[in-house]
Design a protein that fits this description.
The chain has about 325 residues and is α/β, with parallel strands linked by helices. About 35% of the residues lie in helices and about 20% in strands.
Length: about 325
């Protein structure tokens, strides 16, 4: 019997590179790797289930599980994690100076069920003290009109939420319709450095993000790897083999980062930065597996329920392929 051929859709990451390029073995599996933008992968997974294995929005996956959509199943591989205090954008010259100033303001999000937005709203609600009911929320595309929610929602009572299908968040922020935008994808004027749009935090939010981790122990999960359920029904061993391969590829990336023999990345003083990260996290900041992420996943499920991304409180073990819930030891 030959290997199982599976399509794999990922954005470009150094920590998945060895897997995508075949330098990490996937026993019994031949991967056909396709690199696409995150937005395209998410759209095609949500709409068409185009890929056997794919990176996907964690919030959208949780919403689908809540609705008993079970034709894709996750493995505990999280290719993207990010603190999101840095993802709050305002107009240059805005009177807003702190996250507390967002109370009773109009704030835009690309989608209510965007993972980054869930994390940022939870921080505002639980850590800053600005409840989600105290903000007027507007949903629209970041740069272009027409973006829509990809999953059904159950917006909590008392939350003022509306869509602006004919406008973009960037346009509304610049003309004053919005006071701020929460978005994983930065507005184009910010990316181009025009000076029209800036981050709420003058230092980019790093101090706030480090403080958040020190207070909560949470390094927010953004994306998860999913597998079509019919693949797992036919070949249940695929889940464990892929988890091991993703983990090996990530470790290779960390080894490259720590290599002092040559400049593997075009960044000076990288080893010093790694030492800072090690001091803050006390180990691997990007662990895979259920147990290493149980607390963070559990918190995200709480936040998803509180914000109406999920209509019920899901359990951590319900999200992942059963073959990945435990591992052998010697």
């Amino acid at each position: 019997m030959g290997n199982v051929q599976l399509s794999l859709a990922l954005s470009g990451y150094d920590h998945t590179r060895d897997l995508v390029e075949g330098r990490v073995a996937t026993p019994g599996i031949d991967l056909v790797a396709i690199q696409l933008s995150i937005e395209e992968i998410f759209y095609r997974v949500a709409k068409f289930r185009d890929f056997d294995v794919a990176e996907f929005s964690f919030a959208k996956y949780v919403a689908m599980k809540d609705q008993d959509v079970n034709d894709i199943t996750a493995i505990p591989v999280f290719p993207s994690r990010a603190f999101r205090q840095s993802s709050i954008y305002i107009r240059a010259g805005s009177p807003l100076r702190s996250p507390e100033d967002l109370r009773e303001k109009r704030v835009g999000v690309p989608e209510w069920a965007q993972t980054a937005s869930v994390w940022t709203r939870s921080w505002l609600h639980h850590e800053v003290g600005v409840r989600i009911q105290e903000i007027d929320w507007v949903q629209a595309g970041v740069s272009s009109p027409g973006r829509q929610e990809k999953v059904p929602l159950k917006i909590p009572v008392g939350v003022n939420y509306s869509s602006a299908p004919d406008r973009s968040l960037t346009e509304m922020l610049l003309d004053g319709t919005l006071d701020a935008v929460l978005s994983a994808h930065p507005p184009e004027p910010f990316k181009r450095g025009t000076g029209e749009i800036v981050q709420l935090f003058g230092d980019g939010g790093r101090e706030e993000e480090a403080a958040y981790y020190q207070t909560t122990g949470l390094y927010p999960l953004m994306h998860v790897v999913t597998i079509k359920q019919d693949v797992l029904d036919a070949h249940p061993w695929v889940a464990g083999n892929l988890l091991a391969a993703f983990d090996r590829s990530k470790q290779n990336s960390l080894d490259r980062l720590a290599d002092l023999n040559a400049s593997r990345f075009p960044v000076p003083w990288l080893r010093d930065h790694l030492k800072d990260v090690e001091r803050l996290f006390g180990g691997d900041p990007f662990p895979y597996g259920v147990e290493a992420n149980r607390a963070t996943v559990g918190k995200f499920l709480q936040f998803s329920y509180e914000q109406g991304v999920a209509a019920r409180q899901l359990e951590v073990d319900d999200l992942f392929a059963p073959q990945t819930l435990s591992a052998y030891t010697l």
